[in-house]
Amino acid sequence: MRKPIIAGNWKMNNTASQGVALVKAIAPLVTEANCDVVVCVPAIDIPAVSEALKGTNIKLGAENVHFAEKGAYTGEISAAMLLEYGVEYVIIGHSERRQYFAETDETVNKRTLTALNAGLTPIVCIGESLEERETGKTEEVLATQIHEGLKNIEDITKIVIAYEPVWAIGTGKTATAEQANETIGFIRKTIGEMFCPNCAAKLRIQYGGSMNAGNCKELMAMEEIDGGLIGGASLKAPDFAAIVNFDK
Ligand code: PGA
């Protein structure tokens, strides 16, 4: 009942011309996709990639959005700026932004509410560090990220959550399918208690962290996992397409 969603997160890779070449290589490989296909790209790539995606089944996403409508925020990008280029999704609270750019649950919450208000679909990232997992704090950390980051959302089914254990991002160390399934089950239960069980049942929750062409089938076969947020493997057309076509 939940339509899977596979999203690429290019991070700070690909100039605009490289991005255009990449989506042109991906597009013919994913025409038969049974899932939502998204590429989240650097802000400056958006105009060119948006043009290149016309007539394809690939949707465009950004990697961040500011919470203010407009104003004196040097270097930031507003929701209106994204919308003008047909952006539909936006990653919020990626662990790299939390780690390197002082993102907190509070700013995640503000950005998420702004994105929703503007009609963008936020892909909100949550996840524990290795130390937190090893000291048994995973559920506590995730519960805080959920309670603080997702408060005051009117319709929780309008967002996508990406569960990304920080220790699995870019490390080649994937959570086992069982680990990911169990933790995503916990996230769904917590959201069910905070909002309503029915909404939680409809909410799409992705796994992210070293997901690739080799392990995507096993991860996607798990009941709780509704998609993937793909970093490294989204930078190569055949790899990304293989993940999108996980069910073929
Ligand atoms: P990775 O990144 O697939 O390279 O581990 C995932 C992410 O950071 O979203």
What keywords describe this structure?
248 residues; alpha/beta; TIM Barrel; 8-stranded parallel barrel; 39% helix; binds 2-phosphoglycolic acid
Structural commentary:
The chain has 248 residues and is of the alpha/beta class. It has a single domain (5-244), classed as Aldolase class I (TIM Barrel, Alpha-Beta Barrel), CATH 3.20.20. It is 39% helix and 16% strand. It has helices at residues 16-26, 46-52, 79-83, 95-100, 105-118, 130-134, 138-149, 177-194, 197-202, 216-220, 237-244, and strands at 5-9, 36-41, 58-62, 89-92, 121-126, 160-163, 204-208, 227-230. The chain has an eight-stranded parallel barrel with strand order 1-2-3-4-5-6-7-8, surrounded by five helices. Strand 1, helix 1 (16-26) and strand 2 (36-41) form a beta-alpha-beta unit. Helix 1 packs across helix 11 (237-244) and helix 7 crosses helix 8. The longest helix is centred in the C-terminal third of the chain and has 18 residues, at 177-194. The model has no long low-confidence stretch (mean pLDDT 97). 2-phosphoglycolic acid binds next to strand 8.
How many domain units? 1
What is the rounded distance between the termini? 18 Å
How do the SSEs run, as a string of H and E?
A: EHEHEHEHHEHHEHHEHEH
Which residues form runs of ≥5 with pLDDT under 50? Answer: none
- Heterogens: 2-phosphoglycolic acid
What is the overall shape? globular
Question: How much is the average pLDDT?
Answer: 97
What's the story with the biggest beta sheet? 8 strands, parallel, barrel
CATH architecture: Alpha-Beta Barrel
Beta-strand percent range: 15-25%
Question: Helix fraction?
Answer: 25-40%
Side by side, the strands of the main sheet go: 1-2-3-4-5-6-7-8
CA gyration radius, whole angstroms: 17 Å
- DSSP helical segment count: 11
Report the CATH topology name: TIM Barrel
Number of strands: 8
Global structural class? alpha/beta
CATH class: Alpha Beta
- CATH homologous superfamily placement: Aldolase class I
